[in-house]
């Protein structure tokens, strides 16, 4: 199944374009599921059909759903209390009733990720279109599975989980209280669920589509989004320039905005595959208006984002790791080697990346940013690198 993730600056019309894109695909006979993330029913307003946690058929071959983070949060926390009953009783803790639970920050993101995973693993649809939050929140959301799995591996290491069958024996030998079984089971289940979401995001059939209005603010948002997505290794298939004004308008007051959008579009086309959607002169409402937008179809798979290692041992005595970071600024870049990982900070984004196996036997020999690509040089460590005769 193909997965199309749509995001853009707040107010750019990304939800409307997500609905229009899903409607185009469904009209062609593609079984399509449209997932929403907004608390308010923006998708329902655009489609003319109220939507909610229960799947709704908005058109032939088109199903729409908005996850309910409050319901999922209450269910998960109640189940966690049940599994940790013995520990809670030992501490004398009082359980929380489901009726008094209010979702904590992050509940909406987790609910959407779970819905994405469930839809991608099912076989009921050919295309999944996800209306993500605005760009900053969307980038944080897409980083969440990898980051949470890393935290889990540090807090409850896999080797400790593998040894849980020996917990009673180790406890008697060492005289040290060992973690309860429910902790290992919960950590393993969370790790499995997060790994499934990571697999969906890494799949070659998963792409991100950016929606923005052509202008200075839209250009800034695209640069930020492009850098954040590249650092995560996510593929972008196109940029949709939304609400494009007519070039030949008789209204003289539109000359300035039209010139501004023309300049932005010229810049965008040098970097992205740009599709334009005309301004209707009103907020689109209903299937007829969405069809009139002429939104681009879902398209196909985008080229993979590679981080290749080139061998320059014969020429310069180094291996070079190439990290594409379009829009990165040298002054906002930072690299830290930590064990077998590289901590990369670019602008407001940060990612901890495992080193390829060959580079783990090397030391960092320098780095340079050239033409939107970070090139990190690694020199073989004589203590670890195999000797040649």
Q: How would you describe the overall organization of this protein?
A:
- This protein has 389 residues and is α/β, with parallel strands linked by helices.
- It has 2 domains: 2-68 and 104-293, Rossmann fold (3-Layer(aba) Sandwich), CATH 3.40.50.300; 309-380, Immunoglobulin-like (Sandwich).
- Helices cover 40% and strands 23% of the residues.
- An 8-stranded mixed sheet has the order 3-4-2-5-1-6-7-8, sandwiched between helices. A 4-stranded antiparallel sheet has the order 9-10-15-14.
- The longest helix is centred in the middle third of the chain and has 22 residues, at 181-202.
> What is the string of SSEs from the N terminus onward?
EHEHEEHHHEHHHHEHEHEHEHEEEEEE
- In order across it, which strands form the biggest sheet? 3-4-2-5-1-6-7-8
Might you state the CATH topology name of the largest domain? Rossmann fold
Largest sheet at a glance?
A: 8 strands, mixed
- Proportion of residues in extended strands: 15-25%
Poorly predicted spans: none
Backbone CA Rg: 25 Å
**Number of structural units classed as domains:** 2
Instruction: Give the CA-CA distance, first to last residue.
Output: 51 Å
What spatial form do the alpha-carbon principal axes imply? flat
Number of helices: 13
CATH architecture label of the largest domain: 3-Layer(aba) Sandwich
CATH class of the largest domain: Alpha Beta
User: Average pLDDT across residues?
Assistant: 85
Instruction: Give me the CATH superfamily of the largest domain.
Output: P-loop containing nucleotide triphosphate hydrolases
**What is the share of helical residues?**
40-55%
Structural class: alpha/beta
């Amino acid at each position: 199944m193909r997965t199309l993730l749509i995001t853009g600056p707040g107010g750019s019309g990304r939800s409307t374009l997500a609905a229009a894109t899903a409607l185009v695909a469904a009209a062609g006979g593609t079984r399509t599921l449209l997932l929403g993330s907004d608390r308010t029913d923006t998708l329902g307003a655009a489609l003319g059909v109220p939507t909610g946690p229960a799947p709704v058929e908005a058109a032939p071959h088109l199903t729409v759903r908005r996850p309910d983070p409050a319901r999922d949060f209450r269910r998960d926390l109640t189940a966690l209390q049940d599994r940790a009953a013995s520990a809670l009783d030992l501490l004398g803790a009082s359980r929380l009733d489901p009726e008094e639970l209010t979702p904590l920050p992050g509940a909406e993101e987790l609910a959407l990720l779970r819905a994405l995973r469930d839809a991608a693993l099912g076989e009921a649809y050919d295309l999944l279109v996800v209306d993500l939050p605005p760009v900053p929140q969307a980038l944080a959301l897409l980083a969440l599975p990898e980051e949470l799995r890393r935290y889990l591996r540090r807090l409850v290491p896999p080797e400790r989980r593998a040894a849980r069958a020996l917990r009673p024996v180790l406890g008697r030998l060492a005289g040290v209280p060992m973690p309860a079984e429910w902790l290992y089971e919960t950590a393993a289940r969370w790790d499995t669920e997060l790994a499934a979401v990571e697999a969906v995001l890494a799949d070659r059939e998963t792409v991100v589509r950016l929606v923005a209005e052509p202008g200075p603010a839209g250009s800034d948002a695209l640069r930020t989004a492009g850098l954040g997505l590249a650092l995560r290794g996510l593929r972008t298939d196109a940029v949709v320039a939304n609400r494009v004004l007519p070039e030949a308008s008789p209204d003289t007051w539109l000359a300035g905005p039209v010139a501004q959008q023309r300049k932005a579009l010229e810049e965008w086309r040098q970097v992205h595959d740009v599709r334009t959607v005309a301004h209707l002169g009103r907020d689109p409402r209903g299937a007829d208006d969405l069809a009139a937008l002429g939104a681009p179809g879902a398209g196909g798979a985008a080229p993979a984002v590679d981080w290749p290692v080139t061998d320059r041992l014969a020429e310069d005595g180094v291996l070079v790791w190439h990290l594409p970071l379009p829009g990165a600024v040298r002054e906002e870049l930072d690299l830290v080697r930590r064990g077998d990982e590289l901590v990369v900070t670019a602008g407001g984004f940060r990612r901890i990346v495992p080193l390829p196996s060959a580079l783990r036997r090397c030391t960092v020999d320098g780095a340079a940013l050239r033409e939107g690509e970070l090139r990190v040089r690694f020199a073989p460590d004589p203590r670890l690198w195999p000797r040649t005769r």
